[in-house]
Every structure is written in C-alpha cells, then in structure tokens.
Amino acid sequence: MVSKGPLLRLLTAINRRRMKLLMGLALVAYVACEWGRERLGHSPSIQDNGDQKVENKIEEGNSIICQLSFPSFCFEMFHSFTQKYPPVKFLSEKDRKRILITGGAGFVGSHLTDKLMMDGHEVTVVDNFFTGRKRNVEHWIGHENFELINHDVVEPLYIEVDQIYHLASPASPPNYMYNPIKTLKTNTIGTLNMLGLAKRVGARLLLASTSEVYGVKRRHHKQELSYWGNFCLLGSRTTAHIPEGVEVRVARIFNTFGPRMHMNDGRVVSNFILQALQGEPLTVSPSFSFYSDLVNGLVALMNSNVSSPVNLGNPEEHSILEFAQLIKKLVGSGSEIQFLSEAQDDPQKRKPDIGKAKLLLGWEPVVPLEEGLNKAIHYFRKELEYQANNQYIPKPKPARIKKGRTRHN
Predict the structure, then answer these.
(1) What pLDDT is recorded for position 5?
(2) 166 CB neighbour count, 10 Å cutoff
(3) Which N-terminal residues, if any, form the signal peptide (predicted)?
(4) Cα angle at 239 between 236 and 240, to 5 degrees?
(5) Residue 77: Cβ-neighbour burial (10 angstroms; 0-12, 13-18, 19+)
(6) Which of 245, 233, 249 is nearest to 305 (CA)?
(7) Cβ neighbours of 148 (radius 10 Å)
(8) In whole angstroms, what is the distance from residue 386 CA to residue 403 CA?
(9) Edge-to-edge order in the sheet of strand 98-102
(10) Quick one: pLDDT band at residue 273, thresholds 50, 70, 90?
(11) Among 77, 179, 310, 358, which one has the highest count of C-beta atoms within 10 angstroms of its own C-beta?
C-alpha cells in the first residue's frame, strides 16, 4: 500500500489556484485535440485508405490542430506551471544557511541569489528597487526557500539570518549621482544597520566595496594592503565603528558585466553594446570580469577566514579602444568610434592584483571575455526587442467634470 504522507505533503505544497488553472488548461488542450481527431477521423479518404502513411499524416494533423486550437501562450503557461523554478540542491538543516542579500534584485545581487538558491540555501532578498528590478528575481517568487522584501536599508531591519551579503548601493555614476545624499546614507547608515543586525544575530557580513577606494593615483596594479588609496578605510578611525565580535569580509569589486545590467546605466559595456546594436557611434584601460566569476568569488570570500580586503576582478587588461572594436565585431555593427573627454576623477588604471584571492581563496576568473560579451549582447538584444514590442502609448483621457452638491441659498 502506498504511503499517503509524501503525497499529502506534495499536494499541500502546491498552490490551489495554480492547480485549478493547470487542470483547466489541460482540459482545454484535451478537448481541442479530441475535436481535431474527430474531424479528421471521419474524412472519407481516410476511411477508404488504410495506408500507414495516411495514419501518420492524421497524427501530424492532430498535433497541428492542437497547437492551433491551444494558443502558444497557453503552452508557455503550462510549461511555467510544471517547471516553475530552476533546479535546487537539497541541503540538510545543519548545512542549509539563512542568507540575507541587500540589493539582491540588482545586477550582481540577483545572480548571487540564483547561485545561493540553487545551492540549497534559504535566501531573503531586500531591495528598495531604486536600481534593482523584480524581473531579476521573479523566477524565485513563491519558492519555499525564497523571500523578497521591499525595504530600504537606511531603516533598521529585524530578521534572523546566518550570513549577510551587503550589496545595497547604486553602482553606476548616473545612478549614484542622481541623489548623492541618498547614496551616502545607503553606504553609511545602511552599512551601520547591517553591522548592527550582524551583531544582534551573530551573522557574518560581507561588504561589497569598490576599486574606487584606490583613488585616481595612476598606479598600475591595485594591491589590497600595500596601497590604501586616498584614505585608509580600515584604519583606527573607521574600525572603531565595527561592533566587537562581528565577522566582516570585504570584497573590492572591479568592473563586472553580463546579463541583467541596466541598459542605460552609463557604464562602458552597456553603452558600447547598446550603441553598436542601434548603429550609433561608440563614445569612448580598464579590465572587465563576467558576473559569474564575481559571484563565485563573493561566495568563496564569505565562507573563508580572510577578514582583510580582497580584490575581485580580472587582471586581463584591455584598452577602451580594443574593447569597442571587439564589441563592434561581435555585434556586426557599422558604428563609428568617437572619442570624448574623460570623466573627472575617473581612474585610468583599474587592473587588480588578485594574488591574494588566488592564494587564500583559490579563486580567479575563468570566463573568457568574448564568451561573456556574447551572452551580454544576447541579453541586450532581447531587451531591445522586448521594449520595441511592448511600447505603451498613453491615450488622452477626456476631462472629467466634477459633480458637486447643489448649493441651496
């Protein structure tokens, strides 16, 4: 006799509304196919000829009718209900961690969410959607291991977690300069709130720092300990703000690119790809790493015993001109390359020294530049097509006449 326990748990895990909709779609598909089979089954030519080839044609006709009678979007819905989530590894209670990702609906944060979810952990994403998008994590919504919270880290957050990836902050120049005071608050008050949370629950915190801390000094190799930039961010004046007993990991992130980047965030990769796809001039010695390499580096750093800053980037350096020419070639664009004046205080050398990451984390980038660019170009091409096919043109609404009460004199 089959045990009812696993079956009952499975049924209770499935949303009832979705189950009803799924059954309704299956019924519509069955009726449409039966109708097509009946129509073709009474054809005189088929009754008079029992040839196997004709029977094969009937089966082909049935499949065509099913597809015509059952719209393609219904098949997509059916597929989305039957295979809703990416594959998730099972972890036991002692191995499964409760992980908080601030800014988890952003470019890097959403990819980090994917990795941690598929590794079997429980992930809570906190984002105020200033630059993050729900589209980046919508494929996890409803999963028992996933939670999405609309929250600004400037305000305190009370939650029980084991690890905190603090990625919340606008990263591209147009975004962080749009509201500089808000950016400062996110990076100061928001970080203090996350340190306080880590102290309260005993969680380890990983802070996503930036290569910009090295300043504009034209130093070719950026080393974590031999060069502090314009200010020692981990000196005695700042470490006093780290609560005692809190384990902190600091990742200094260099240029990263890939799918889910904002199309208009003003960064080199997104600008070049969009301009090349649209046939516009490419307006121009950094290094670039693909998002999956960075995500693997963040996870390795979080789970290590390294408490000092670690560079995470790609030491393979290309000039802006080489980068522009490569993107033109991959896109097949005829865009010309135009040279503009450089941005103020923009570091000219961004090549990281990743010797520490190699030695202590066993980490280094593995995705070739051309492979990563092809994936990014494919994503941006789909985004442009999506925008072109979903243009919303608001129609003028007739003026409303406000009806008031009749006044009595």
Answers:
(1) 58
(2) 26
(3) none
(4) 85
(5) middle
(6) 249
(7) 19
(8) 42
(9) 146-150, 122-127, 98-102, 163-166, 204-210, 248-253, 310-312
(10) confident
(11) 310
